[in-house]
């Protein structure tokens, strides 16, 4: 259950980051970019089951890809 809780926590944080990236404020967008990369790093450290370097790099560049990876991991965790 801890793994699912961690994934849900990361997913919620990713939503906040996504909103901050879209806010239009340069400073907030800059900070959100840093938070996004930190979340990606955390996700891949804690939940890298089967993920490759390409997915990691894509997730750091594309918040939408990152959120899809999180959602897929949550779905898989729910089945397990």
Compact overview of the structure:
The protein has 80 residues and is mostly helical. It is 84% helix and 0% strand. The chain is built from four helices and no strands.
Architecture overview:
Helix content is 84%, strand content 0%. The chain has 80 residues and is mostly helical. The protein has one domain. The radius of gyration is 12 Å and the shape is globular. The chain starts with a helix and ends with a helix.
Question: How are the SSEs ordered, and which strands pair?
Answer:
Blueprint: H1 2-21, H2 26-46, H3 53-61, H4 63-79
Helix pairs in contact: 1-2, 1-4, 2-3, 3-4
Biggest beta-sheet profile: none
User: What coarse outline follows from CA principal-axis ratios?
Assistant: globular
Instruction: Outline the low-pLDDT stretches.
Output: none
Q: How many beta-strand elements?
A: 0
Which descriptors apply to this entry?
80 residues; single chain
């Amino acid at each position: 259950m801890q793994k699912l809780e961690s994934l849900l926590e990361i997913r919620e944080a990713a939503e906040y980051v996504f909103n901050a990236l879209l806010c239009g404020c340069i400073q907030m967008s800059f900070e959100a970019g840093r938070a996004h990369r930190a979340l990606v790093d955390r996700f891949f450290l804690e939940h890298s089951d089967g993920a490759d370097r390409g997915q990691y790099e894509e997730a750091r560049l594309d918040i939408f890809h990152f959120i899809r990876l999180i959602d897929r991991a949550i779905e898989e965790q729910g089945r397990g």
